[in-house]
Amino acid sequence: MAGAALWIQASRPKTLPAALTPVAMGVVIAWREGTFAALPGAAALVGALLIQVATNFANDYFDGVKGTDTEDRLGPQRLVQAGLVSPAAMKRAFILAFGCAALVGAYLVWHAGWPIVVIGLASILFGVLYTGGPRPLGYLGLGDLLVLVFFGPVATAGTHFVQALTWSPTAIVAGLAPGLLGVALLAVNNLRDVDGDRLAGKRTLAVRFGTTFAKVEYVGCVVGAAAVPVLLWALLDAPPGVLLASGSCVLAIPPIRAVLGWQPGRRLGSALAGSGRLLVAYGIAFCLGWSM
Fold this sequence. Notes:
By secondary structure, this protein is mainly α. It has one domain (3-291): Farnesyl Diphosphate Synthase (Orthogonal Bundle). It has 15 helices and no strands. The chain has helices at 3-10, 17-33, 38-66, 79-82, 87-112, 114-129, 143-150, 153-164, 169-192, 194-200, 205-209, 211-235, 243-247, 253-260, 269-291. Helix 3 runs antiparallel to helix 5 and helix 8 (153-164) runs antiparallel to helix 9. The N and C termini lie far apart (45 Å). The mean pLDDT is 92.
């Protein structure tokens, strides 16, 4: 493979909607209330994407050098494990990407103040510690919580904050939806990789509590995401159009069937692809509905 294609693969482009969707939701919430600010909103988007890419590079590096990724894994190829990129090159890549994210964050700190220092440093720290360090958080079963928080309320409410310069309960609640859908994606990955993770000592929730738990977790996350717009409309005076996002969750029916019918050894590619499409569709429906 050509060099550029390798690095695009390493960035895991299919995961980037998980970073894009909550930021877009935060921008639209600010726009409707009249606090939209283009430059801070754009900086939040770029920073979120850089942190996501950097975290993906770091995961490829740490899982490769730890031996968690093996040639028997069912998921997409990981470059360090496959010998396509050296560990040193991948390490430089994630450090560079986190450094670029920090530069974007410096502008947001100048614009919005110390809360962005906390959010930015925590995002970078957890991005590294997810699979790095002596006790990686993802190996302890904390990945689901981190995804819910950082791809959910932190991203959505943080994006709103850098524009409005005030915290919004509406943005915090709205952020639960992309966070839950991000956890749903992670649950599919953990279900698919449960046997390999168990052998590698990676104690995901699927390993800790079993595959039935992972299946229930997936369905619960989708149902929770569908309920968020209803709560926003009923309790926080959101526009009725936001219920379009709830309607988009019908796209979850095929992946739910695939997840519930999963057997060991299956790749769950259709469930992952369907869950990714759901996340994108949910974000588009939310933004359109909120703009009505």
